[in-house]
Design goal:
single chain, about 110 residues, mainly beta, Thrombin, subunit H, 4-stranded antiparallel sheet, 3-stranded antiparallel sheet
Length: about 110
């Protein structure tokens, strides 16, 4: 991860210790908060929840329908994100979806991903 605008390295992620099924990281991710970052992987379209210094905390498996692929990710809140999903089996435009990360929600608001 690089600082802007100086492009000085802030943090790096060591993939050697991850159980990643040889996923490689796509070029996009986002900040959820000052404490967490989400990175996307290809080709399996998993999300990796990391601390702000890129220490991996959890894999988030997207229970997507066949043909659905994330095209963009945007952090909305410390426990929520938006994904733009493209259906490769359809000519319809991408769909905007909102997902909650249950383990990051306050205990009284924990639910499954929606």
């Amino acid at each position: 991860m690089l600082a802007w605008p100086g492009l000085d390295p802030i943090a790096t992620l060591d993939l050697a210790g991850l159980d990643s099924d040889q996923d490689r990281f796509d070029f996009f991710g986002c900040l959820l908060s000052q404490d967490h970052i989400i990175l996307t992987t290809i080709p399996n379209h998993h999300l990796l929840l990391c601390t702000a210094d890129l220490h991996p905390e959890a894999w988030i498996d997207l229970d997507l329908t066949d043909g659905a692929e994330p095209e963009a990710v945007l952090g909305l809140a410390p426990d929520a994100l938006a994904l733009e999903l493209w259906d490769t089996d359809s000519t319809d435009p991408p769909a905007a979806t909102v997902w909650q990360i249950p383990d990051l929600a306050p205990p009284h608001q924990r639910t499954t991903m929606i």
